[in-house]
Amino acid sequence: MTSFKIHTESTMFNSTFKVIYAILYLLATIIRKIFTSKNRKMDFVTHRKSTGDFILLFFDGIGMIIPLIYVFSSWLDFADYYLPAWIGWAGTGLFVFAIWVLYLSHAALGKNWTPVLAIQKEHTLVTSGIYAYIRHPMYATHILWAIAQVLMLHNWIAGYSFFVVMIPHYLVRVGREEKMLQDHYGQKYKDYAERTGRIFPKLW
């Protein structure tokens, strides 16, 4: 009887968080689409694009598609496990916060945003808005998203798919991005980096 109750609760909570996850995923996609549609033409003056970057982006995409397969089908249900519902709600709150950070990032960046390591003509060093506190809020968004996905989708495959690709992406790419910006902006970027944190605000 206890086992049946746990299974029933697990199914119910998974269904609830699948729906919530899909709604928040759609909201994040709409925000990204609104801002990127204004910046379709990109004229690069320098770029650090590489095969490795495209491979990382490809696996990021896979990590974000797998939970959608889980949400809209039963193919991955065999990998479900049970956790209390409050963990899913905590993940929901974290996902909402991640979407807010995503919005603030795009709003501050404007046309300076690029999907690859590159600097455009008329590119400016953005140090206002959320960028006054952290240098890489986009990465912060995706790390928060990845953790929220683990908490919301209690499935060994769908829950962890984005996390296992996003963390290596961050570790590999953020250093290269900072080097590119430092080479382009020189002392101005060094001064900016000294007073801000990478993905968490400096508390001292």
Topology:
Elements: H1 2-36, E1 44-47, H2 51-72, H3 85-109, E2 118-120, H4 137-152, H5 161-185, H6 187-195
Antiparallel strand pairs: 1-2
Helix pairs in contact: 1-2, 1-3, 2-5, 3-4, 4-5, 5-6
Q: N-to-C terminal Cα separation, in Å? A: 54 Å
Mean pLDDT across every amino acid position: 86
Number of domains: 1
What is the CATH-assigned architecture? Up-down Bundle
Order of helices and strands: HEHHEHHH
Question: Please, how many helices?
Answer: 6
Give the strand tally.
2
Strand content: under 5%
Assign an overall shape. elongated
What does this structure look like?
A two-stranded antiparallel sheet has the order 1-2. The chain is elongated and about 55 Å long. The chain has 6 helices and 2 strands, in the order H-E-H-H-E-H-H-H. The protein has a single domain (7-35, 49-195), classed as Four Helix Bundle (Hemerythrin (Met), subunit A), CATH 1.20.120. With 204 residues, the protein is mainly alpha-helical. The longest helix has 35 residues, at 2-36.
Name its key features.
204 residues; mainly alpha; Four Helix Bundle (Hemerythrin (Met), subunit A); two-stranded antiparallel ribbon; 6 helices; elongated; disordered N terminus
Give the gist of this structure.
By secondary structure, the chain is mainly alpha-helical. The chain contains six helices and two strands, in the order H-E-H-H-E-H-H-H.
